[in-house]
Structure formats: structure tokens, C-alpha cells
Amino acid sequence: MLGVVVALAAGGCAVPAQPDAQRAKDGDVPFSLLDPDAPLMVPEPPGPSSERVALCFLRDGRLSVVDKELTSPVSERALLDALAAPPPDAGPLVRTALSDPAIVRDVRLLGGISRVDVAAGVSALPADEQLLAVAQIVCTLTGRPGVGQVSLHPRRRAAGCPQGGWVVGHVTGRPGRLRLSHGLRQAVSGSAAADG
Questions:
Q1: Residues of the domain holding 165
Q2: Is the pTM of this model over 0.85?
Q3: What is the pLDDT of residues 95-110, one digit of tens each?
Q4: Position 82 in a domain
């Protein structure tokens, strides 16, 4: 019985064993492979891939999530740079408080916390725009996998800014709601008092 199984297995693939390679006749070569006028099939090199990301913009003073395609891999820096202008298809009422990408100097992800270094120029924004800019940054970054918190650090310590920077929680609860650390609430309310 074992001999029958071995014989069937050896003869089952229908390719006869040959000691040497043999040249096939031109007529036996399939798919016009020998035709000099056949179109050359060259695979296109892969182009840059993209990733759909959620970016947080502003509509009527509230956060509004807008999807946009960005080139992969998407870094935290690329996300924040994309906040400089809403996509044209987002609608005329959608705007940003981060129209100057230079406001964000650096961003790094360490242990689930995005550390965002902001330029001193952020203090030139009115207090309500500062808060909206922070909300956009936090909403966008915490929408990414692996980011649970955002820590904002100004280049120079502005009046009312805590020594180590602002540690901001993520956007929680209803859309448009931002849970802020006590230090950020004080800094923004202090700026608002100075502006008013």
C-alpha cells in the first residue's frame, strides 16, 4: 500500500524528471513572451502612501473634526503642520487658531505624552485664541493611537505660565469640551484679565 502512495505522489505532478534543461520550441513558449513587439510590462514603482487622519479645526468657537489625507507615515509634527489651514472641502465656516505653523517649534511622543514646545509668539495671540490653539493641538494629538496626554512648553516662560509648562488632559466627554490643568486655566484666565 505504501508503494502505491509513493508512486502516485511521484507521478502526480505530471512533470517528467530530466537530468538537464532543454530548450523549448519557439511555438511552445506561451503568452507571446518571445514576440519583440509585445508591450513591455514594467511594474510602476510604489508611490507615497497616504493615511486618513482626524484634524481638529474650529467652527463657531467649537472644535470640529475634519478628516484629511496625509502622506504616510504621519508624524506628530505633520499633524500639527496640517492645522495651519483647513482643507478647502471643510467649508467656509471652518477656521484655525494655528495659521502660523511656527507657533509649534517641536513635538515629540514619549510614553503616551506628546510634548509640544511652542514659540514665544503664542503669547501674542489673544487669550481666547490661545485657548482655541491649545484645544486644536490637544484634540488632534490625542485623537492618535498611543497619545493620552499633551504637555505644552513655551519657549520662554510667559506671565501666568507654570514653571514646567502646561500639562493638558485630553479632550473628553462631549465634542468641543477640553479638560485643562489648573495651571493652564490660570494662565489663560490671567491673560484674559490682562487683555480685558
A1: 50-195
A2: no
A3: 999 888 788 889 998 8
A4: yes
